[in-house]
Amino acid sequence: MIVDRTLSRAVLIGALLTLAALGGLVYFLNFLAQIHNIGTGDFSVSTALVFAGLTLPQSLYDILPVATLIGALFALGAMAAHQELMILRVAGANLWRIARAVLWGGLALALLTVLLGEFIAPPAKRIAETLRVQKMYAQIGAIGSGGLWIKSGRDIVHIMNVESSTQLFGLRIYTLDAEQGIAAVREAAGATFDDGHWTLNDVHGTRFLDGRTELIQAAHSPWPAFVLPSVFETLVVTPDNLSWRKLASYINYLHANGLDSSRYETAFWHKMAIPVSVLLMALLALPFSMGMGGMRSGGVGQRLALGVGIGLAYYLLDRTVLEAGQGFHLAPLVAAWIPTALLAIAVIIAMRRAK
């Protein structure tokens, strides 16, 4: 029990310290990424600082597997350098007994990953994107789960869903007259941007003319006066903005409307794979710390180089496979779990060699 507490606490503290250090760097980079927006509309330096803070949980979620590996290497490497792991082996604790203790720390980090990915990062990211758009574009009104409102000329538009910057769904348009009264109300199933202008699809509504009404109905209707697609670029629903539950709901919505959901299904399975990868990263640090690759006598620089190298390789592999999965139409479950499956194989091989 003492062994479990000591090793799991060492792994947990090492990973959290590493995460804090990387988080500071990531916060600064997130801020730098918004410098070009300063001066656009009401977007200021303080807005950029707040935006960087709100997007930080998502960044921490993305780098938690890497932080776990680096932190565990530092913690376990330090214990190995002081012969503490060797003493445990001499006392009768085999490699798998020590691994079990390490996994308790990895489990705590996996739970932190779930907490960030499900309850903290998605809403914070949505708030950040909403803040950026409202500060940069004065015509954007309220944004929330009930859609968004935009004022464009004499049109006040309610949009339920932004599928992409050039494809909108569920529109209601209120057109004002010169006296700010309602001149027309239209509803459209969707709107698409093509050849430099917007087109409304499946339109119906009512136009008010001098005490009488006129029905509006058209399969397609040009809408040249609406805002440019660039306004919607940061409002597109992305997997990063959604929790597991919201992803499942959005996938059902896409299925019901006959839309491609593979990107979101991949993200759904990937969110399940990340906590597992955190556990595996904690375990992967153990064989290297116990002498594999000369790490037992290695210094801080060697452990840092190894952790960064393996972590970066995994991160690049993970992102590459996710993108390639879309390009080559891999099954979402396969694309999401390939990097974690390869990581599991690497852990098994490393543990057997260390044993």
Structure, briefly:
The protein is of the alpha+beta class and 355 residues long. The chain is built from eight helices and seven strands; from the N terminus they run ααααβββββββαααα. It has two domains: 2-136 and 239-354, no CATH class; 140-226, no CATH class.
What's the arrangement of secondary structure elements?
Blueprint (H helix, E strand, L loop, with lengths): L1 H31 L12 H37 L2 H7 L4 H42 L3 E5 L2 E6 L2 E10 L2 E10 L5 E13 L2 E13 L2 E12 L20 H13 L5 H28 L10 H28 L4 H23 L1
Give the number of domains: 2
Helical content class? 55-70%
Number of helices: 8
* Sheet having the most strands: 7 strands, antiparallel
Average pLDDT works out at 88
Strand content: 15-25%
Structural class: alpha+beta
Strands of the largest sheet, in order across it?
Answer: 1-2-3-4-5-6-7
Radius of gyration: 26 Å
- Low-confidence parts, pLDDT < 50 over ≥5 residues? none
Termini separation comes to 22 Å
The ordered string of helix (H) and strand (E) elements is HHHHEEEEEEEHHHH
Which word captures the global form? elongated
Tell how many strands the DSSP assignment holds.
Answer: 7
Structure, described:
The structure is a single chain. The chain has about 350 residues and is α+β, with helices and mostly antiparallel strands. The chain has 2 domains: about 1-135 and about 240-355, no CATH class; about 140-225, no CATH class. The chain is about 60% helix and about 20% strand. It contains 8 helices and 7 strands. A 7-stranded antiparallel beta sheet has the order 1-2-3-4-5-6-7. It starts with a helix and ends with a helix. The model has no long low-confidence stretch (mean pLDDT about 90).
